[in-house]
Amino acid sequence: MARRILAAGNWKMNMTPAEAAAFINDNKAAFASDDVDVLFCVPAIDLPAALAAAEGTNINIGAENMYFEEKGAFTGEIAPGMLDDLGVKFVIIGHSERREYFAETDEIVNKKVLKALEHGICPVMCCGESLTQREQGVTQEWVRQQVKIGLLGVDADAVKKVVIAYEPIWAIGTGVTATSDQAEEVCGWIRALLVELYGADVAEEVRVLYGGSVNGGNAAELFAKPNIDGGLVGGASLKPSFADIIHYNK
């Protein structure tokens, strides 16, 4: 079975609950698709409103982060059981902003991936290199390390439920997009690593996304690549024109 394209939005720290509900309600018809899976990962405080607005549509609602403990003295954190109780089935883990601003390591990412899977939540696990790392020619080694450590202890059945998002840090929010060939090259490396770790059959079932200034104008070229199964989109997912990404093949 061919992997379904996933158009995923990361809202970051944007939109109030009222704004989130209005955005989804105003655009749900434009975002409807039988061919593409649609996902908005929203701030935690927006989750109930977004879930209610998206009920009965093809729009999935996910979280932007979660902690790896069930409960305890972790002020400000969100437990996986809290997301599970709301009915959240996706969570972004290891985004470059979490790594940079909140000191998340590959080991922390791995703990979160394992805990999300334990609760039946699909982790959208991010990886990607800085401009310096690309210029120094270490992109492949860097991304392989992030993915290998992030998936440590994840077995072949569980990894099929993981989404891996390759986001070159130098292309996030900069307006600079990796060429489709550059994006495909790294997503191909990720697929090859999955073959090494789990075998070809399992690797063919894992969705690998590209993130980094994806828009309606470049989505078709990017998503046509054999190892790119959709996009993790930032600012463009806050606009009605996100529909152009969802309907990239129209």
What this model shows, in words?
The chain has 250 residues and is α/β, with parallel strands linked by helices. The protein contains twelve helices and eight strands. It has helices spanning 17-31, 47-54, 80-86, 96-101, 106-118, 131-135, 139-150, 156-159, 180-198, 200-203, 219-223, 242-246; strands at residues 6-10, 37-42, 59-63, 90-93, 122-127, 163-166, 207-210, 230-233. Strands 3-2-1-8 form a four-stranded parallel sheet. Helix 1 (17-31) packs parallel to helix 2 and helix 7 (139-150) crosses helix 9. It is globular, with a radius of gyration of 17 Å. The two termini are 22 Å apart.
Major sheet: arrangement of strands: 3-2-1-8
Class computed from helices, strands and strand pairing: alpha/beta
What letter string, H or E per element, gives the SSE order? EHEHEHEHHEHHHEHHEHEH
Mean pLDDT: 96
Helix content: 40-55%
The unreliable regions are none
Main sheet overview: 4 strands, parallel
Count of alpha/pi helices: 12
Beta-strand percentage? Answer: 15-25%
What can be said about this structure in brief?
The chain is an alpha/beta fold and 250 residues long. The chain is built from twelve helices and eight strands.
Question: Keywords for this structure?
Answer:
alpha/beta; four-stranded parallel sheet; 41% helix; 250 residues; 8 strands
Write the layout of secondary structure elements.
Layout: E1 6-10, H1 17-31, E2 37-42, H2 47-54, E3 59-63, H3 80-86, E4 90-93, H4 96-101, H5 106-118, E5 122-127, H6 131-135, H7 139-150, H8 156-159, E6 163-166, H9 180-198, H10 200-203, E7 207-210, H11 219-223, E8 230-233, H12 242-246
Parallel strand pairs: 1-2, 1-8, 2-3, 4-5, 5-6, 6-7
